[in-house]
Structure prediction request, 611 residues.
Amino acid sequence: MAQPPIFSLEGVALQQGGRWLFGGPTPTSGAAPIDLHVLPADRLALIGRNGAGKTTLLRLITGRIEADRGQRRVKPGTRIVFLEQEPDFSPYATLMDFALGGEDAPATHEVEAIAGQLGIDMSRPAATASGGEKRRAAIARALAQEPDLLLLDEPTNHLDIGAIDWLEDWLGRYRGAFITISHDRTFLSRLTRATLWLDRGTLRRKEVGFGGYEAWEESVYAEEARAAERLDAKLKIEAHWLERGVTARRKRNQGRLEKLHQMRAARAAMISGAGTAKLKLASDDDFKSKSVIVAEGISKTFGDRAVIKPFSLRIQNGDRIGIVGANGAGKTTLLRLLTKELEPDTGTVTHARTLSGVMIDQQRKLLEPNATLRQILAEGGDWVDVRGVRKHVMAYLKDFLFDPSLVDTKVGILSGGERSRLLLAREFARTANLLVLDEPTNDLDLETLDLLQEVIADFDGTVLIVSHDRDFLDRTVTVTLGLDGSGRVDIVAGGFADWEAKRKPAQATARTSQRARDDVTTTAQRGGNDKPPAAGAKLSYKDQRDYELLPARIAELEAAIARGEALLSDPDLYIKDPQRFATISQGIANARAEKDAAEERWLMLAEMVEG
Prediction:
């Protein structure tokens, strides 16, 4: 028998900023009122463009704002917890004060247990804490409240790879329901089982995880276009320019991905066997003539810590270089060394004479809130110089997914994601042959990420990218520089997945050991007596069977994933058969989740066997 929902919105409509964001008072005023039912173990991705009302919907669910029409129903005893994108730390002296402040404060020992697993010092002053430290503190507070329904607004923002892995692992074992807004495709694909799509005031639901979302979206837009054509509704078709652009963009991006794979293959041939120290080409003279940044034996030490140990790198014109690693591993230091903002302790960095760069950093320089989009992009005029080519400001806005009618709108009323998109539009217009992006994906919706990938692929020069967004790197970069915190820089042809594959055995072992330590810590905090399996302990019959059979099952899953990815490499598949595309995508996501669990289970058993 199906379980009843723990939360419902029924016939909800909301007016905001003089317009109906959801529904309206009459059938002609806007989209239909919203209905939403959340079941006890739902894992829901909430998808929609910046400004569609995703965060507002989460606030409606929490009860922080009231709808103009409709009913909000909560099953008695249900605890709803909201992890905000930008929580207010200003009233609190320390991160712990924040975690224990407000209504429904969690128990101190619960916060300490989770904070210990996340590696955050909760005694740190809130005023001087970094974005990553604040995000960890907010996560510790939210999870320690033991929610029945957890609302997550961009939970991976400001987190490094290790913290994202930990959060994914926690949510994978979490028994309650959650709804998450995220631009992180990998995070969404691994965790969600159903999708809520908020589009033009309408909320749709489909029982397919994020892996099948894009095929579903394509099918909805295709049906709308067919309906519009049947009715000869030219105005309606014109209103769908964004949606039709999505389809065309994704098809173009399939071709760009094929080109990216070719570039990676060529780069792989240049990398030395060790994967470090330097890149080489069959014709070294030809390589040197195309080099735009040459680092020879560079290193950097702060105090007693070697942040960057000596390494060499030649970056060619057209390279897309991704820099990844945990917070504090040295990513920004490496970036500053390569861009000559920072002098190395040893070695040299040489730039081509023609190199000129634009940097878009993670702090996102504030845009004047009273300025209009026209003033930001065209200094109040009608034309924008886009890398030396004149383009009408309204056409350029359209390129960056803005409604051209917003040209004289003030920046102050834009959402955070829309402001980020506007900043990208302004910076990409500048004439440069080096583009430096520091955490460019924060606050961007999925459509803007598609656009950003397209612009980077078409950029004539060289791109340096610091990012924790695994899917974005896999779709964008030709070479990954991976930092593990020891000062070593690994050079790997390909994206994040290629770097992860290289370091996965050690990483998986460390994660298994850390989980065992976490379990001990949590048990001790709660006063329990549970103990992890002792090293060298005799295996039970089931454990012994798993130890013997799991390697074969892991190999089967890897083969299934490879077959699925080979099928998805067909750029026309989602156009020809969107349902098959969705089925294959979901199958890959399920196989990856099972493989990860199987690998961790086998590693735990191996530690027991080996003592």
